[in-house]
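In this supplementary section we document a worked example of the pipeline. Step one takes a protein sequence of length 663 as its only input; no multiple sequence alignment statistics are reported here. Step two produces a three-dimensional model, which step three serialises into structure tokens for compact storage. The input and output of this example are shown verbatim.
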Amino acid sequence: MKRHFSLAGLNWELVGTKPYYWKLDRQMERMKITQPEEKPVPAPVPGSVQQALFNAGILPDWNIGTNYRQCEWVENRHWLYFLDLPDGIVQHEKNERVNLCFLGLDNCGEIWLNGQLIGDFETAYHSYCFDITDKIQLSNNRLCILFTSPERYEGQVYWTSRTQIVKPRFYYNWDWCPRIVQTGIWDDLFIEITDDHLLPDIYTYTELLPDLTTGVIHIRISGKNEQKGDINICLSETDGRIITELRICSNELVPNKMNCFTVNVPNINRWNINNQGSQTLYNLRCTSFDPENNPHDQWQRPVGFRRIEWKSCANASPEATPWLCCINGIDTFLQGVNWTPLRVLFADVDESLYRERLLQYKELGFNILRVWGGAILEKECFYRLCDEFGLLVWQEFPLSSSGINNTPPDDSERIGRMKDIVDEYILRRHYHPSLVIWSGGNELYDEANEHPLNFEHAMLKAIARTVEEKDPFHRLLPASPSGPVIYNDPKHYGHGIQWDVHGPWTLPEEPIDKFMSNIRSYWQNSDALLHSEAGVNGASPVSLIKRYCGSYQPLPISVDNPIWAQFSWWMEEDAFRKAHQGNAPVSIEEYVEWSQERQCYGLSIALTEAKHRFPACGGFLIWMGHDCFPCPSNTSIIDYEGNLKPVAQSFYEIMKSKTQNPN
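The serialised model returned by step three reads:
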């Protein structure tokens, strides 16, 4: 059987050099850096270079004041993670192979073992697996993961057409985080010992038939490599009780094609979304056998059975895309948030923080999370917890807007790179019952920045072909927004052209009275089928602002104040003055109280009116859910420390209000 040895949590050390100094004097052949700029320090793995340097007292806390500026030098060095493998960790037979596997490296560099170059890596979006059978020793093995410098800049204001699609863009700077460009190991890493009887790539999709009691398992087995033995698929309860099994003989698998099988499972319990019932999960186990019927390779994964149908919204134009989500026979209003990384340096986030944040969204009553396209494929634990909590996932591929130009690359090299990324995303996450939508990316527009792109663009066409081949069971969008127009805008109301729209991210206009009656009219009159990004700015708590402002003062709220200058999009002192007879805030307490009340009323009105329009409106996704950096103000509803802003606390009744109707 395949054997697996984790390399996480071992005694890794980190060394820093000036670029390419490690190439001098055969240092890598000796696996020892004799010309370091930063001497060895302990390094948590998985984890970022920055966190290791902070732990060693070399970097300041980048969350404080403008300390992030003192961390930018890290990008301009090369970093080497060294590990002396424990003796005896790898013992293998002559007919077995030893593979060194990495699920997430951010983003480019080389792998060395015992003075030999094993291979290189170039993107944070791929897993990597290297055959080290001929290079591993019985003892005294020394491993090095070497990171070179990343792309110089691919931040928020840029050209999407120039992006290389090798690294997340948000941490080059976005309107909700400063520049802290991560380098490091962001996901699991391990040694795997295998033989020739490996399982091929197997895709398993589960759904319910219209009777809502019969489950279906769709099994798609790649014929890329010849299968030498049988494959057994077993569905069981989580306590191990077997429900059904399917034995697939090797002679049933046709080489060089996708082999498809189907298993019906009667009397299955449903997986329901949050607020609609329990989330029943089962265990699906797949095992490969050799011709003598000995088991060799095996994996297990959680699965759930649910039925998703997309219907036209009430009063929608005939050509409009369907945005009424029917889940297990219930027409359901999609109430969600846009999910961004939990921390700028997401390599350092463990499962406990994922559980804490996702549980908050569950308890608030949300039912869908849109994983934004400027970041990463979210970790396995994120998906597993969404399965557990009944939270649907809309996962975008790594393309995003840039302000100057929002059109993706169209050259064959980067299209090929994206196709490989799509393959990887699907293979690693397709089976989760929480997954509901794939999307080509965030805010991808034509050259004039006037209309959302569709699948006629070369990049999005290639994505569509790859998804159609590997995953025809989930909905695919070209991007978000999608349809004829980009923004929710009163000039479009009544024309039936607002399908999936974005905005606004502030109040659409200044309130004319304390009831915000004009704001309510704005949202009541919208005819959008889906609001996949909309929000209202609101300040963080006073205590948080003071805790992280460092040597600066919370006031004034001005570009002259460095703690506000980084987040200038979210400064609203002019609006404050209009509401206070031209006076500036006399204290940060006064400003925060006004800002949070404004966010609370404004966003609550938007969400309430969208729900009132159901089923003409299929959903509302707030931009954004939480802060990954202690912004003094932002559209988030959960602050950096995990505290609910007043607006989130006001959502309980809105979220629990009933819109679901039996189909």
